[in-house]
Amino acid sequence: MTGTASPASLLDRPAVADLVIRLRRSAEYVVIPAFALLASAGLFSLFLLAIGKSPAQFLELVWRGGFGTPFSWRNTLTRTAPLILTALCVAIPARLGLTIIGGEGALVLGGFAAAVVALPMIGWAPSPLVMATMVLAAMLAGGLWIGAVGALRHGRGVNETIASLLMVYIAVAILNFFVEGALRDPSDPNKPSTTAIGRENMIGAIPGLDVHWGLAAAVGLAIVLHVLMNNTTFGFAARIAGGNLRAAKAQGLPVGGLIVAACAIAGACAGLAGYFEVAAIHGKANASLAAGYGFTGILVAFLARHSPLAIVPVAIFLGGLAAAGGLVQRRMGLPDATVLVLQGLIFVVLLVSETFYGRFRIFNPEGPKT
């Protein structure tokens, strides 16, 4: 009959309408961060014009320095690995409503612990055993460091943001105390460092990429944590606690255990980043571990809306910005910190953009009425 829909199409209509509604709601979490990036680029362009520099040249140099050549890609991906891991240090506790910004401290202590446990094993232990011990020490150090922040938050009500930030400075002080004192390598008078762990105990590169295996480990860990936080009872309980702590307690959820566990997992991720910095880049522990990856990871996590999977492409983007800093400095006569100015603008605009969520009807259509 003309104008009469088949039963199958009638059954499909609600499902299609529901899918469209979900897609429109999800688009909000892409469009608003994208708008924040564009607004940041516009503000930064005004800054460049004010100091007599060309925004077009800056953009071209960023592309060339971060993504334009195979060498640029290697630099970018090398920086991506620690950014992914330190961003996970922010994203996992954020599911419980916690704002942890101390990933830099966990990275520093993780790298330091990895180097320290390797030193007495050099010369007699096989390399796989040394590397496995370094990984465990790094993750344990980072996990205990940020886990302590969670314990303070739950047990004493200490603000986790302030506590984790202050503990960064304590971690750096611990590193400097030992590498400038009892554990300093006397054969290196120029830069205080621990003794080198040896080339045989360093990790190699991914075949075909010439980027160390930390990148693969970081991406793999992001996938594992995505599954943990979205497809397990632990993740479900964390989301409930993050939505309303009082309601979670009323339902009998172990809120304290969830907070400490999430913080410990987060710290272990940052500690693992410290291991890769020692075992793949520096070969020893020194002040170079405090390279700012933990702080840039905060921006990565916020841009990715604390999604472990979204963290990966965002980390690549910001890793490219960092990789291009040297080229921008040489060609435009700008300080290397210029990229940090751009990152700061992005972070500020991103925080402002948080007020736009839920305000646009196009992203929040009403469901079909029954």
Protein model, in words:
The longest helix has 44 residues, at 7-50. It is globular, with a radius of gyration of 23 Å. The model has no long low-confidence stretch (mean pLDDT 88). The chain contains 14 helices and no strands. The two termini are 27 Å apart. The protein has 370 residues and is mainly α. Helix 1 (7-50) packs across helix 14, helix 3 packs parallel to helix 7 and helix 4 (103-118) crosses helix 10. It has a domain at 77-332: ABC transporter involved in vitamin B12 uptake, BtuC, CATH 1.10.3470.
Write a brief caption for the model.
This protein has 370 residues and is mainly alpha-helical. 71% of the residues lie in helices and 0% in strands.
Helix residue percentage: over 70%
Number of helices: 14
Total beta strands: 0
Strand percentage lies at: under 5%
Question: Biggest sheet, open or closed, and with what strands and sense?
Answer: none
Rg over alpha carbons: 23 Å
In CATH, the topology of the domain at 77-332 is named: ABC transporter involved in vitamin B12 uptake, BtuC
Order of helices and strands: HHHHHHHHHHHHHH
The CATH architecture assignment of the domain at 77-332 turns out to be Orthogonal Bundle
Whole-number mean pLDDT: 88
Low-confidence stretches at least 5 residues in length (pLDDT < 50)? none
Class per helix and strand makeup? mainly alpha
For the terminal residues, how far apart are their CA atoms? Answer: 27 Å
The level 1 CATH classification of the domain at 77-332 is: Mainly Alpha
Name the overall outline.
globular
